[in-house]
Design a protein that fits this description.
mainly beta; Immunoglobulin-like; 25 strands; elongated
Length: 337
């Protein structure tokens, strides 16, 4: 009789093991807040930043390869969002990176990259979220965790109710064209060239979105800036130098207001005049100021300009923090940040 009971127990344990059952429970807490209230929770904000606080106390420890699912309500679009960070608060050991993150519709899936040592809370920050076009009562985000094979660990659990507002603090959301992703920069090739009078050069342009991905299907408008009329350029970027001197070529992405510049100098007399675009006159940092709490991160961008106010393609920015104990910097894949 004892042998039969033990055999049945072993069979049940084996079945349980191979079926992948886990003692799942609701997450202790899920709380959603905008990074900047009155700005990141505005309707029509196409680059909103949201923080999701998750507390899995009493649940299952997450290990490398496990996944965190965050599902925003209908009306939010995370297709072009970006994972920013996972910051432990009362939990320890857990971390995640942007590698392997999956974005689709109103959902983001974040793979865990290091084992969670102790249960507790951690904060996930994402940016580039497209908020709904109209406020519709309160919203709640749904969160759950799974193993690498898709077995549910904890959840799904709904967050605290939060609002998307139409206006706040006198802030009016900017108008964005209906086509996205949005053009952030345009690069002209070549950017500097020497030509003899009567010679021609074909310039090409490439638009990029805010994540550095090339964009296609856009229209480029070529022109020669007033006051530098030493040449002509066609609608396809084919330039001809007509007299000695320098020429500034402008390329604008139609409908976006994003421009890029290239510069032409004549061989004779040489140089005529020197290449003034090489000299940096000022550097602008965006954003200029920002309110942050300990543990938060923020991306800053820099753009150098010459004495004529034209942007320069500078890549060797050096960042420092004063005082040195106030925070840390790291250079992202975009060499300007």
């Amino acid at each position: 009789m004892k042998k039969i009971v033990l055999s049945v127990l072993v069979i049940l344990l084996v079945l349980g093991y191979f079926s992948g059952t886990v003692s799942a429970s609701n997450l202790y807490q899920v709380k959603v807040t905008p990074e900047v209230p009155g700005v990141d929770n505005l309707i029509n904000n196409m680059d909103a930043r949201w923080n999701i606080l998750i507390d899995n106390s009493g649940g299952n420890l997450l290990i490398s390869g496990d996944r965190i699912y965050i599902e925003f309500p209908s009306g939010f679009d995370l297709t072009y969002a970006k994972f920013v960070s996972l910051t432990p608060i009362t939990a320890s050991g857990i971390s995640a990176s942007g590698s392997g993150v999956v974005l689709s519709g109103n959902q983001i899936i974040i793979p865990v990259t290091s084992d969670q040592i102790s249960l507790g809370s951690f904060r996930i920050s994402i940016e580039g979220v497209h908020n709904p076009a109209t406020p519709s009562g309160t919203y709640m985000v749904r969160v759950w965790t799974t193993t690498s094979t898709g077995i549910t660990l904890d959840g799904p659990t709904y967050s605290n109710p939060f609002l998307v507002v139409s206006s706040s603090y006198g802030y009016n959301p900017p108008y964005y064209p209906p086509t996205y992703p949005y053009v952030s920069t345009v690069v002209i090739t070549p950017q500097y060239v020497n030509l003899s009078v009567g010679a021609s050069q074909l310039f090409t342009a490439q638009a990029y979105d805010s994540f550095g991905n090339p964009m296609y299907g856009v229209t480029y408008i070529w022109s020669v800036l007033p006051g530098s009329g030493n040449g002509t350029i066609t609608s396809n970027g084919y330039f001809t130098l007509t007299s000695p001197g320098t020429v500034t070529i402008k390329c604008e992405v139609l409908g976006y207001g994003v421009v890029g510049y290239a510069y032409v100098n004549s061989y004779y007399p040489y140089p005529y005049p020197p290449y003034y675009p090489y000299y940096v006159n000022k550097v602008e940092i965006t954003p200029v100021s920002v309110n942050m709490t300990p543990g938060n991160t923020r991306v800053f961008t820099a753009q150098a300009y010459d004495s004529y106010g034209y942007p320069l393609n500078v890549t060797n920015y050096v960042w420092t923090v004063t005082p040195v104990t106030a925070g840390t910097f790291y250079v992202s894949s975009d060499t300007k940040t």
